[in-house]
Amino acid sequence: MRAGRQGAPGRPGFSLLELIVVLVALALVASLSAPMVARSVGVGAERRAAGALATALAVVRLGAIQGQGTITASIEASGGRAVVRWPVASAADTEARESVIEPFPLVFVGGERPDGGSSARVAFGPRGRADVERLVLRSGRGGGRLWRIEFDPVGGVPAARRHTEGSQP
Fold first, then answer.
1. What is the pLDDT of residue 84?
2. Structure pTM?
3. In the chain, how many domains are there?
4. Other Cβ atoms closer than 10 A to 141
5. If you count Cβ atoms within 10 Å of the first and of the last residue's Cβ in the chain, which end, N or C, has fewer?
6. Is residue 5 domain-resident?
7. What's 152's domain CATH number?
C-alpha cells in the first residue's frame, strides 16, 4: 500500500500492481501444492482398497477356521472394482459368498489379464493358514506404488502394507 497515493483523500487502498502480485503468488502456491494433494488422495484410495481386501480375506480365513476345512478365495479385479468370492457350506448345499470392493484402484502383480483386469487366489486351511506368503498389488493409476497383503506365517492373518524401498515386494 502506498502512502502518498493520488485518489480520494482518507481512503487507503491497494494498487492494481499489488493485487496482481498477490494473485500471481497465490496461483504459484496452488500450482505447486495441487499435485501433492492429488497424490495423497490417490494413496488414500489405494490404502482403503488394500485394507478392505485384507478384511475380506480375514472373513474367508475365519470361515475356514470355523468350518474346519480348506476354503479357497478367488479375487477378480477389473474396471475399478474387486470381487472376492468363496464357497460356504450349508446344511443343504454349498453356496458362494462374495465381497465387492469399490473403488479398487489396484491390480495384482503377476495376475494381469489381457482385458486389463487381474486375478489372484488364496486358500486358507482349517487352522487359518494361507497357502501364500503375500499378494502383491500395484497402483492401477500409474505412479508405480506397490502394496502387499501379507499373511502371518503362524496364524495366516492378512495385513495390508505399502511396499517401501529396500524391502521385498
1. 93
2. 0.74
3. 1
4. 13
5. N
6. no
7. 3.55.40
pLDDT in tens, 9-33: 666 888 899 999 999 999 998 888 8
Residues 6+ apart with CB under 8 A from 68: 126
Written as one letter, the residue type at 143 is: G
Antiparallel, parallel or unpaired: β 146-151 and 158-162:
antiparallel
- Residues 51 and 57: their CA atoms lie apart, in Å, by 10
Grouping H, G, I as helix, E, B as strand and the rest as coil, residue 145 is: coil
pLDDT digits (tens, 9 = 90+) for 30-65: 888 877 777 677 788 888 999 999 999 999 999 888
Task: Give the separation between CA 39 and CA 58, rounded to whole angstroms.
Answer: 29
DSSP 8-state symbol, 5: -
Strands (E), the chain: 71-78, 81-89, 94-101, 106-108, 118-124, 134-139, 146-151, 158-162
